[in-house]
Design goal:
By secondary structure, the protein is α/β, with parallel strands linked by helices. Among the domains are: 91 residues, 2-Layer Sandwich (Gyrase A, domain 2); 139 residues, Isoleucyl-tRNA Synthetase, Domain 1, CATH 1.10.730.10; 111 residues, no CATH class. The protein is 52% helix and 12% strand. It is built from 21 helices and 15 strands. The strands form four sheets. It has a five-stranded parallel sheet with strand order 7-6-5-11-12. Strands 1-2-4-3 form a four-stranded antiparallel sheet. It has a three-stranded antiparallel sheet with strand order 8-9-10. Helix 5 crosses helix 15. The two termini are 35 Å apart. The structure holds one RNA strand.
RNA sequence: GCCCCGGUAGCUCAGUUGGAUAGAGCAACGGCCUUCUAAGCCGUGGGUCAGGGGUUCGAAUCCUCUCCGGGGCGCCA
């Protein structure tokens, strides 16, 4: 992978190999039990006084070796193979083994950055494992709102990170194009259409009231004129009363759905239904695409019924004896697998539930042979996790292959005030409005700045501000500054000799330079940790720290000095910095501008 | 009632999976532009890691109890 033989792989791995060799040597000598598998723990030191990397290995193994941590540490250090990477190894504190790296080890990292370019930080530790990431999957009953935005940014970033560390990633959106909510949308569209035809009636309490429903109704009216019109009295006749009239809004809307279906007939009903579905889905697609969120597949819930997957899943559950009938409905005995209560899969009216589709969907995912299946859900669905896992176990699949990542809501603040939102009344801030207000970059970055299971306060004023308070500008500014330095270089009639810089990296002996180089060398470790832990915020935080190291350096030293060796070396360093910032922002879906 | 997530500086949050003296940004205060973009830098102050108990060489981190905040407990999706 590396263009330079002195840095075949990240420095951390190389050190881990040295420790492994030492452990193996002590095992051969009988100091350590030979049968014990040893997990090499290495971490960056918090304090440079403790070297570059530290291992707690001696403390972890001292019991097995029946010796004091520091004594064992001595033996481990004595057994370490020599390496040109390491200048010094110290034992400190209760038994830490501290590694001090040679400057050449860091220079190798810099050369690696420029050699690998946009691939620096990528790795193959995922070993080509196939991972499916399903995210957003909002019902196509309305536009995406800011809550979906967080799932979109988070899911897309997790997928990109996994790909960066060598997984084969399949990004998927589960389209809930079946079920009652969609019927409610279809009826809402139809009623708006009737309104445009001149019919008058009161709109159901449970219907979708957003403006976009009017728009779809208008499309219907434009294309069909009065051809689909029915008398309002006829539509509402004998339908159970709505809530405002003292009735039940659920019964009212269900009655309306049945009536509209029978009045229009299957074909025409389906046309209205699909118009609503496709219009909104197109809208969602465009939104996500413009947000830099791309999918490999849009998976239709309806297709699960049409392909017989739902039926097949239910048959498999029946065959394995995990379902029973009660009260006219078919139940899945999820309590056998740790769920709180059993769940209905087929209603007493014969319709399968959403859960039945989801069982079939997850069965289908595993049938497609993924090594790992990741679902990104809103945290309000957390109660749903045990039953899906229960179903997979009942089907004889490995439920541990499924990871459900829960994303908490984002609460918007404007002028220090919480922005009130309510889906019921149709008053919510859409993702599109958010992007328009704060821009894609700030939206993407702010969404992944926090741990996903953390409630997030999204400060709109901060995201918009073009000031040092705004972390996104801070990072982008560092990138732009490097580009600006190179523009200055040209204006001064000079040019950068990269090879000369590479030869003079030992001239970078300032503390600020040392710290910046160390930060750059951490990048591959950060990408790996962020990917494997599904924690994009680690990368976001790292980029801020890196930008900070750069700005500090920028203020302390002049890059365009007369001394060509030093100048080329410094330009080499800041060029590497620019590259890492660009790579990191790229993984977060944020642009890296050359000027601001 | 049961379950899930959270509680760390005035505010918003990190804390490398149990490590060394708990960090950053913002806000507050004091400095730095005739020099590559001041959208920047430097310095100062600020903590009972919600609280009690436990586990061990070592706990913000793990186990337990209590308190507080948010969410979930449909033949909705």
């Amino acid at each position: 992978m590396g263009a330079f033989p002195d840095c075949p792989e990240p420095m951390k791995q190389q050190l881990a190999q040295l420790l492994s060799a030492a452990v193996a040597a002590l095992q051969a000598d009988g100091v350590l039990p030979a049968d014990q598998a040893v997990d090499i723990q290495l971490e960056r030191t918090r304090d440079r006084k403790h070297g570059d990397f530290a291992s707690n290995l001696a403390m972890v193994l001292c019991k097995a070796a029946r010796s004091k941590p520091r004594d064992l540490a001595e033996k481990l250090v004595a057994a370490l193979p020599s390496s040109e990477l390491v200048t010094r190894v110290e034992i400190a504190g209760p038994g830490f083994i501290n590694f001090f790296l040679a400057p050449a080890a860091y220079h190798a990292v810099l050369r690696q950055v420029l050699a690998d370019g946009e691939n620096f930080g990528r790795s193959d530790i995922g070993a080509g494992k196939r991972v499916q990431v399903e995210f957003v999957s909002a019902n196509p009953t309305g536009p995406l709102h800011v809550g979906h935005g967080r799932g979109a940014a988070y899911g897309a970033t997790v997928a990109d990170l996994l790909e960066a560390v060598g997984h084969q990633v399949h990004r998927e959106y589960y389209v809930n194009d079946a079920g009652r909510q969609m019927d409610i949308l279809a009826v809402s569209v139809y009623l708006r259409y009737l309104d445009l035809c001149g019919e008058s009636f009161s709109f159901p309490a449970n219907g979708y009231k957003g403006d976009y429903v009017w728009d779809i109704g208008a499309t219907l009216h434009r294309t069909h004129g009065d051809a689909l019109r029915h008398d309002a009295g006829e539509v509402f006749r004998d339908v159970p009363a709505d809530e405002p009239q003292g009735g039940d809004k659920e019964a009212h809307i269900d009655g309306l759905i049945a009536r509209v279906k029978s009045l229009l007939g299957d074909a025409r009903y389906r046309e209205v239904f699909d118009l609503g579905l496709n219009t909104i889905l197109d809208n969602i697609r465009r939104d996500l695409e413009a947000f830099g969120v791309h999918y490999d597949e849009w998976f239709s819930e309806r297709s699960l019924t049409e392909s017989g997957a739902v039926e097949r899943a239910l048959e498999r559950l029946k065959a394995s004896g995990h379902v029973y009938e009660k009260g006219g409905a078919l139940w899945f005995r999820s309590t056998d697998f740790g769920d709180e209560k059993d769940r209905v899969v087929v209603r007493d009216n014969g319709q399968t539930t959403y859960f039945a589709s989801d069982i079939a969907y997850h069965m289908n995912k595993l049938e497609r042979g993924y090594d790992r299946v990741i679902d990104v859900w809103g945290a309000d669905h957390h109660g749903y996790v045990p039953r899906v896992k229960a179903a997979l176990t009942a089907l004889g699949d490995d439920a541990d292959k499924l990871d459900v990542l829960l994303v908490q809501f984002a609460i918007l603040y404007r002028g220090g005030q919480k922005v009130q939102m309510s889906t019921r009344s149709g008053e919510f801030v859409t993702l599109r409005e958010l992007r328009k207000e704060v821009g894609n970059d700030a939206a993407r970055f702010f969404y992944v700045m926090r741990k996903c299971e953390q409630h997030m306060d999204f400060d709109l004023d901060l995201a918009k501000s073009r000031s040092n308070e705004n972390p996104i500008y801070y990072i982008q500014y560092a990138h732009a500054r490097v580009a600006s330095v190179f523009r200055q270089l040209e204006e001064k009639g000079m040019s950068w000799d990269a090879d000369n810089g590479a030869r003079h990296l030992d001239r970078l002996d300032e503390t600020h330079e040392d710290q910046l180089i160390v930060a750059l060398s951490r990048y591959p470790e950060i990408v790996e940790a962020a990917a494997l832990n599904h924690e994009p915020h680690q990368l976001a935080h790292f980029l801020r720290e890196l930008a900070n190291e750069f700005h500090t350096y920028y203020n302390a030293h002049q890059f365009l000095v007369d001394d060509a060796g030093l100048r080329d070396a410094r330009l080499y360093l800041i060029q590497a910095t620019r590259q890492v910032i660009a790579n990191g922002l790229g993984l977060l879906g944020v642009s890296a501008p050359d000027s601001m």
